[in-house]
Amino acid sequence: MVQQREFSERAGWRTHAERVHGRGYRRYSLFVLALGVLGALAQWLTTEVHWSTGQILPALLITAGFLLAEACTTDINVGRIDYTISLTAIPIVIGLYTLPFPIVLAAHLVSGLAIQLGRRAFTHVLYNAGVLCVEIALPFLLFRLLSPVQAVPGWVVVVLAVLASSLASTGLGLGALQTAGAGLGMRQVASLGARTVVVEIVATMLTVAFYGVVRDVAWGWLFVVLLAGAMLAMFFAYGQLFREQRDLGALANISLEVARKRGAGPGPFEADGRQEIDAQWARVGEQIRDQIGADRIVLHLVEDDNEAVRTVIAGRALPEGCQPEEFWREDPLLQLPGTEVRYHRRRDAAEEVAAALRGRGAHEALVVPLRNSARLLGAVEAHDKASRWRGFGRADIRLLRTIANHLSTATDNQRLVARLRHDAYHDPQTGLLNRPGFLAAAGEQVGEGAIVLRADLDVLSGVSDALGQVWGDRMVVTAGQRLRDQLGPEVPLARIEGGQFAVLLDGSRPPEEIAERLRSALTATYTFGKLSVEAEAYLGFAKVLESSGEETDVTTLLQRADVALRTARSSAESVREHSPSMGSVFLRRFQLVTQFRQAVDRGEVLAYYQPKVALGSKQLLGFEALVRWRHPEFGQLSPDEFVPAVEATGLIDVLTAFVSEEAIKRIRAWLDNGLRMGVSVNLAVRSLGDDTLPEQVAEALERHGVPAELLTFEITESGVMANPERALPVLRRLHALGVVLALDDFGTGYSSLAYLRQLPVDEVKIDKSFVQGMGTDLGDLAVVRSIVELGHSLGLHVVAEGVEDDLSREALLGMDCDVAQGYLISRPLPEDKLEPWIRARTLREPGECGAARLTLLS
Length: 858
What we know:
The N terminus is likely disordered. 53% of the residues lie in helices and 17% in strands. The protein is of the alpha/beta class. The strands form 6 sheets. An 8-stranded mixed β-barrel has the order 16-17-19-20-21-22-23-24, surrounded by 4 helices. It starts with a strand and ends with a strand. It folds into 4 domains: 215 residues, Arp2/3 complex 21 kDa subunit ARPC3 (Orthogonal Bundle), CATH 1.10.1760; 169 residues, Beta-Lactamase, CATH 3.30.450; 144 residues, 2-Layer Sandwich (Alpha-Beta Plaits); 183 residues, EAL domain (TIM Barrel, Alpha-Beta Barrel). The protein is rod-shaped and about 160 Å long.
């Protein structure tokens, strides 16, 4: 007979317990039992039965036939419906011809119920008993009613009787599924009915033919035995072919199911990723369970490098108190060296294995490890064969081994994909999100009230330069952990770059409060062994502008928070909120930087000159070249507006080359006019690291025929100290050319006497903040006096900047300061006003070496 697996326990029906343990199913089972018992009684009472001792052996043989028919089954899968083909039609046909109804019924009941009890299918005993009665009562009833009809051949009667029995059991199975809420569609029902009719007709007609040959032909039984053996071989080969086809399909489905998993664990920004992955593993377990025919599948999955184990169960739940993920390393059932499948049966296993099986409520188990080349990935347990009374066989072991190999490969690949995916979205040092991970965590659009906050650890570059990159990395890791401790595990936190972090807030708490708390955490002392480092931190944040009604993505908020952060840094404030005006400031700086090179070529960048006068003799010694930009849109720009941005973007070399060239050409023009005056040019920090600068200066001086001593380069202490190893060789080579070197803004930098002695400088310039304050601040006065005395003691000329009144000039003159520069003498002059100023404000007198001397008139 052929049944769908979920139709009849006698033919290998494996109904999921949760599908049929309902009150409706129990009532339906009682109905089927009553129907079968009434049918059997009716047939028994209406049939004359003759008992004899000669029927004992046939009764035993027919019982053995039913047992053999139930044992010799094969499972096939067509259109995702599993069928079980059995040979019970053969003993039924033989019983119709040779034995009375009660004997055949008893043999069928004994064999069928014995097999079901051996499978521990106690839930369906009532239903199965009713079906068994119907399967015998109905064909005997039809056989008795149709046999007297002369027009119907005997073999047709037998075929109709057996076919009616099979269709009746199939119909009752459909009713059981419908009652349990798992009915099939009409197409599946039609497919099942057609296959049932074909198989039952073929099996019944062959049996009738064999019976006639045995009864009427000499030595016919030998022919039947040989032919039956050949057909059985074909039957099993057919079943094996379908089983292999089904197994290949199942392996493909299992591999695809595992491949659809998004990784070994949910991402940090996947709210319900864990539930989805659990469901996917449960589907994998169900497919393995269906394929092997097990009562339960237990999947143990090692999820990460910390050996955390999760357990997924398909089928009957484990007994209460049995949690394998808590003890799986010590579980005797899961001691899994190698890759082979272990088969354990409770009745003949070692005591500790038998105890483990009892704890699981299982009588037998197949266990196989999941491994890659380097480590254990998990294990698969299959408990209690449900579709065959004889338990798990070699085919099941072979199939489970193949499934395990596929699972191991697919799981290992998924672990690799998960690791790559994790690395793509996480910072390798801190374990926090990186920029792509932060954007993915926030999603396409951020909700109303969302806030992006950026924090920058200020001391990081200095620590890396002084102590090495390792110490800088340690500070970053510690800072990230401090932020995570303050924010909690659910808030998206990312390391953007260097010591910069980004946080996505939901707006439930004031951002100013959170920012101050984070700043306090970041600026707390960093202690590494005996080393303690103090740090500063700046924070900027940006909100979604609710009043504007705009849809703001997280990238825009990141940019705005970065603008606020840079504003906080430039204004020396700790925390700043983004405002629309901030963007225009940085946009203007960006425009200036991108337009600077073209501005130099178009003549918009000009050199201005501020005079330097000897305090004692009032002689005009020279000028300082200062740069100005006449921007066509923004008007006249001072150096403070564009020089820092130009220097930060690496264009300072262009500016230095331009001003130096203008200064040398100006000196050449004065020499041609009989004037020997010098020009000083400011050197930026970046220029001090340019090893080619001395050669460029020498080439320009030679090209214009200008003596090197008329060119002065002004440098700052901080510029030299930023990288003294590179700056000092450059300065020494410039000094060797004869170029004058001046130390600018003296007193505001490191002011290290040791370094001052090492620097090849010829003069020092007192910062204007001291000069302008010495009239009202005795401290500034003392500083200026000290610098003058120190400079003279080292044989240096001393220049005072920022001289704006007669009182300051007289005070400097009293200190024997050498040179004055400032608004008292003149503001910086453009090229076209330089010569008129010289003629109007100076007196030209003969000087030494044929050069004229210019003396300030007042």
